[in-house]
Task: inverse folding
């Protein structure tokens, strides 16, 4: 008798959950959502791998070009100039915060900073 009662309660909880989640298509809708998310994750991973491969190919071609045209000395001078310029730049000041930010505020602040860097 206790088992039947326990099972009846479980079925009622499941029915309640299904009613609450009807807007998402019920259990099938939730599953479909997860399938889409997994597929998007796979696609973005594949795109990242392709970008990394393309960057490696570009780097290899650039160095091959530098070697073929005997531009190694000019390249080394260029790198030295850039390194000196980076070392001469003052460190970026980080403003002090009077109180800790919440996770959302910190996320928004980092997004704003990224947007500013992209514009520059």
Result:
């Amino acid at each position: 008798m206790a088992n039947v009662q326990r099972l009846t309660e479980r079925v009622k909880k499941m029915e309640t959950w299904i009613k609450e989640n009807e807007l998402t298509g019920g259990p099938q809708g939730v599953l479909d959502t997860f399938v889409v998310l997994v597929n998007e994750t796979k696609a973005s991973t594949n795109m990242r791998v392709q970008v990394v491969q393309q960057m490696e190919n570009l780097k290899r071609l650039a160095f091959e070009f530098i070697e073929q045209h005997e531009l190694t000395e000019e390249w080394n001078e260029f790198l030295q100039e850039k390194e000196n310029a980076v070392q001469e730049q003052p460190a970026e000041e980080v403003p002090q915060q009077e109180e800790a930010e919440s996770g959302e505020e910190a996320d928004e602040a980092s997004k704003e900073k990224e947007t500013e860097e992209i514009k520059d």
